[in-house]
Write a structure and sequence with these properties.
- With 245 residues, this protein is mostly helical.
- It has 5 helices and 4 strands.
- It has helices at 5-29, 32-87, 93-175, 179-190, 213-221, and strands at residues 196-200, 203-204, 228-229, 236-239.
- Strands 2-1-4-3 form a 4-stranded mixed β-sheet.
- Bound molecules: zinc ion.
- Zinc ion binds next to loops.
Length: 245
């Protein structure tokens, strides 16, 4: 394949741009924020689960508290009723003894309920602090997701802008190169190589190998407008005054 040496040199510009584009794509894939976000989202789920757990426990205790309150209320009402009956006329001696007995039982019951109530109120207070703490932890975890997302999106926007710029430069570079040569370049690049590289001091800048004497002689003998390749890696070799030929 023939191509003007100046055109061949623009392949180096193209290769540099493709290298930059590869680096940008790599940066996009390996942004630390991507892994950080996964971690932060896991932390949010954990914090949510924890909050649900303590809120559920708090709800259970609230139900217990209401139950005890109802029981206490019942005991009080019964006590009041018994006192009223005792104070009223027409209560027989036996009934009075029964009522006294019941009042004593009610008193003991009330003491037990009030102790239980106190204990549960203390538990509920501690759990209230847990709920508050879990809410703060969840808010912090959600804030972390917001912050990381913002940093990631800023980085993505930077990469987008850089890619757009390099993409335009690349399109301009490709425009000046014959389609056949671009195709040869792309074919080598599709295999994971550089596509084109400078021959610098007898060394292919793609595979970094120094070419042997026979290969160098062949490159030297090839006309300047002949497109040549690295015998080691197949990359298009661009010859310049620095090539050591
Ligand atoms: Zn090579």
């Amino acid at each position: 394949m023939k191509a003007d040496p100046a055109v061949q040199r623009t392949l180096l510009t193209l290769a540099d741009l493709d290298k930059e584009l590869n680096q940008l794509a790599h940066r996009r894939r390996t942004l630390p924020e991507i892994a950080q976000l996964v971690e932060a989202e896991t932390a949010v789920r954990t914090a949510k689960d924890k909050l649900v757990e303590v809120e559920t426990n708090a709800g259970d205790l609230d139900r217990d508290i209401r139950r005890i309150e109802r029981d206490v209320e019942g005991v009080r009402a019964r006590t009041e009723r018994d006192h009223t009956m005792l104070a009223g006329s027409g209560v027989g001696a036996k009934q009075a003894v029964d009522l006294q007995h019941e009042l004593e039982t009610l008193q003991r019951r009330q003491t037990v309920l009030e102790d239980e109530q106190l204990e549960i109120m203390e538990q509920r207070e501690a759990l209230g602090a847990d709920v508050e703490h879990s809410r703060v932890a969840l808010a912090a975890a959600e804030q972390a997701v917001t912050d990381i997302t913002q940093r990631r999106d800023t980085a993505f926007a930077d990469i987008d802008a850089a890619e757009a710029g390099r993409g335009r430069d690349r399109a301009a570079a490709v425009e000046g190169i014959p389609a056949e040569l671009v195709a040869a370049y792309e074919k080598r690049r599709a295999k994971g190589g550089a596509g084109a590289a400078l021959l610098l001091a007898r060394r292919c800048q793609a595979c970094r190998l120094e070419l042997d004497r026979v290969a160098i002689a062949a490159l030297k003998a090839a006309p300047a407008d002949e497109v040549v390749y690295c015998e080691e890696c197949g990359t298009i070799l661009v010859r310049t005054a620095e090539s050591g030929l």
